[in-house]
Amino acid sequence: MAGDKDIELTAQAGEIDDIAAREAIEDERIKTEQQQTGGALERYINFLSAINFGFILQCSWEAAAVTFQFSLSNGGPASIVYGSILAGFGTSLVAISLAEMASMDPTVGAQYRWSAAFAPRWNRFFGLMQGWITSFAWICSCTSNPALVSNIIVGLVIFNNPEYVPQRWHVTLIMWAITIFPFLGNFWFRKVLNTLEAVGAICHVVFFIVSIITLVVLAERSTTDFVFKTLTHDVSGWTNPTVAFGIGLLTVTYPLTGFDGVLHMSDEVKKARVRVPRSMIISVVLNAVMQFSYMLTVLYTIGDIDTVAADPLPIIQVYYQATGSKSATNLFVVMLAIIIFVSFFNVFASDSRLLWAFARDNGLPFSKFFAYVHPTLKMPLNTLMLIGACLCILALINIGSSTAFNAFISLPALALYISYFFPIFFLFIRRLSRSHPAPIAWGPFKLGRLGPFINLAAMCYIIFIVIWMPFPTALPVDGLNMNYAGPLVGAVIVGALLDWIISGRKRFQIPVVRQRPDF
């Protein structure tokens, strides 16, 4: 039996080495082809860094800690507990579905390339539309990190100086200041990646353990009935329990998005066909477990719910009631900001690669300019500057809306889930089709007979979540508390349609799926 096991492991190792050898040949061909479009990226990300990249990028329990005020007024504890379970399973199904496609074609363009490849017809149209939606989704994802950190900074200032009255433009300035660091840091991202990912992963886990132990040991206990049976639907103006529960899902579904971030680094990941799918699935599962465990702990140790709900950043009062110390509370909340800030570097890097790939396929106006890769830094410098400019512009939303923080959270969640839906839908149709002339070129990771069922369940989950994302979190709705996520996503879709009509149908090139090695 031991001998058989050794043979099996040797065979697996040989298969992965063969993938790496073929990948190297493929990279040389692609590099030669891409020189005319501005250059190519190089592979330098190993397996551990690929795992850590997605693991830290999601920073699920930290993001949930900073945003669970949405659920306190809509859905309450029941929405957080059962929503965490739903989000964990649902997002895992979505990640598994996309991981199968990543195994076939681990490409930086990811969703828009797969939509173009698997759409039954109008491939160029769906590819371009998907490219705009995915690019917009990731630009919005970039805004969520500085929004979260700025919200923490303002919350701590109010906590330590109650007389301080925050102005909306203060948050915008803080977001601009926070954006400078990952923008400059990405110039040397290749050199600091391993260290950054290692430190981030350690902090992500250690702070999680320390936070849970502290709350469990020091805080007063809530009742089990409060945690599992309290469904809040009489605070925000939404009186229907189902609607309140659905809106409250934003707290637990938003942090688990973004697992496709490592996909957009595919051209820089060694043995990407094996490692990228694994990274996606592992990061989602681990973050889902950590998020559920942390939020369950918070609900059992939340203390005086009225005091917590009244705070601009409720997690501050959770720690303060548990520790009774302002210094300890500051330390714990700063921990959250540190991980979210480290995650910002990953989001920035992933987004710059996505826009670079879209420009390389002539999806963006002035594509030749944005497809440029700096020959020394080996990174898409121009798209990095584009993202920085977009973040500064989007940060201005905060000046015009008192609930802009809601938009910074719901926008990326809504747009990302939409970007996940279409490639899964097209692959599902292709799976069931008996008339397509060519078989699906599966990669090392394939779902087999379970594939259609997993794809269908993933699509059902996405549709259910997308329904609630555009809802305003409070009634009555006015210009200040309006949720602008839906209108903005709609505006992007209309803009993409106009781009297709004006020049996109002539400019955009159908991405050619890479030739799959014989595994």
Cα separation of the termini: 25 Å
Largest β sheet strand count, sense and barrel closure: none
Helices and strands, in order, run as HHHHHHHHHHHHHHHHHHHHHH
Q: Measured on Cα atoms, how large is the radius of gyration?
A: 23 Å
Superfamily at the CATH H level? Amino acid/polyamine transporter I
Shape: globular
Counting H and I runs of at least 4 residues, what is the number of helices? 22
The secondary structure category is: mainly alpha
Poorly predicted ranges:
1-16, 514-519
CATH architecture: Up-down Bundle
Helix content: over 70%
Average pLDDT number: 85
How many domains in all?
1
- In terms of DSSP E residues, the strand content is under 5%
Total DSSP E strands? 0
